[in-house]
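Sequence only, no structure available. Ideas?
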Amino acid sequence: MRAARRAARTLRRLRATLAEPGDDSTAHGRAHLRHRRAALAIAGGVAARASSVAGLFVSIRLVSAATDRDHLGLWLLLVSAVNLVGFSDLGIGNGLLTVVARALGTGDRTTAREAVSSAVAVLTVVAAVLGAGFATVYRVVPWDRLLNAGSAGRAAGPSVAVLVGSVLVSLPLGVAQRVHMSMQRGWVAAAWITAGNVASLVAVWVASATRASVPVLLAAALSGQVAAGAASTAVLVLRRGALRPRLGAARARMGLLLLRHGTMFFLLASAVAVGYESDSLVISNRLGADAVSLYAVPFRMFMVAPLLVGLVAGPLWPAYGEAAARGDLAWIRRTFRRSLAVALVATGIPSLLLLPIAAPISNRWFGAGRPPMLLLLGLGAWAVVNGVSAAVGVFFNGVGVLRFQVVAASVMAVTNLAGSIALVGRIGVAGPVIASVVSQVACVLVPSAVLMRRALRPGAPDSAFAAWLGRWARPTTVSRAA
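Reply:
I predicted one. Tokens follow.
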């Protein structure tokens, strides 16, 4: 009864916090607003991620019943590859988020409006150029041999075309989501993502019921988010808000500034994609497409916890940027330390609980085979490392520490890829995961801890943190664009 009363009091306090409007004229009021917006964004993000994970697992079940192991492996490989090619916007989306968040933090709506309009124009051009380049090389690349697709080789080329087409169409459509996030309205973006996940699941169900080919099944899995992006963009364009994109508000100088600012995010995303998302490709190339399902299914189970950590930390990105623009440094330091503690607990406990049950679930429910214990142990460690890295990365992105991240992530990517290739032949499907854990800790987390030890240590004055930001943070582009 006492625990129930405490829980009830906590819920009442949380409800009061969410209901209180807040006041951005004081540091306390701004902190309350950030927490309120982050709580709403987290709630929406959890719903979006839950629908994504549930939809993926149900989709795997549907596709596995409609195809054989090789076709299922190819489908899983390309569904996972959406994250690998997601950096094709050249970092403009992340640059836009940072620029708009800082502009709104200083009340500069003119710069924010120019940034949104310029981002739509630049991303449309980028999508057209990349599409033309892919069309040029499509018939030259032996996709079946590159992906080692086995009996699914005939479907490899058309499936890659579906993947690339979906990604390119989504480039300019993703601006609306970035606008909501930069305004610390992540719950709106999450609502659109949830709607897209539901639409994708329905499409996969229909396609699997008709025993559709892998390209059609892949198009069904990707169609929901494309449709949600188109709908959210239409709403953003039709409404008469301050950040409504207009062709007349696009500026060449702002486009160049977004490209310059986004270059660091592009390099960072490229390195992270190679380091984080290359495991499936290495396994497919060295062990065959059927081995991907043995790795991918338990990987998805263990990645639920760090993905939830990312949902909790993600709304803090624009909040960190807005707080840095206003000089609320004490709030940044306090919030970052709390996010690290949450990341450790939220990934460590679920990983321990998954160890004894992941193998039977993967084998009996999804029919993907029984993964070895070494793979499961590696995935558990990887989940914890990934969650902590997400909290650190959001902090660095929000305050503008980019160059250090690019260097550390690049070294990690090269080390991880070389280690994955070397270990997959020696210890099998667990090799790339072990390489990922070792390279991430040695090349990213340890150097990050050394970098931040003085500025964020308990008792350090705000002036020390401000000096640290002045040394390591990338200068804001807002002042140069205004």
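Residues 477-482 have pLDDT under 50 and may be disordered.
Hope that gets you unstuck.
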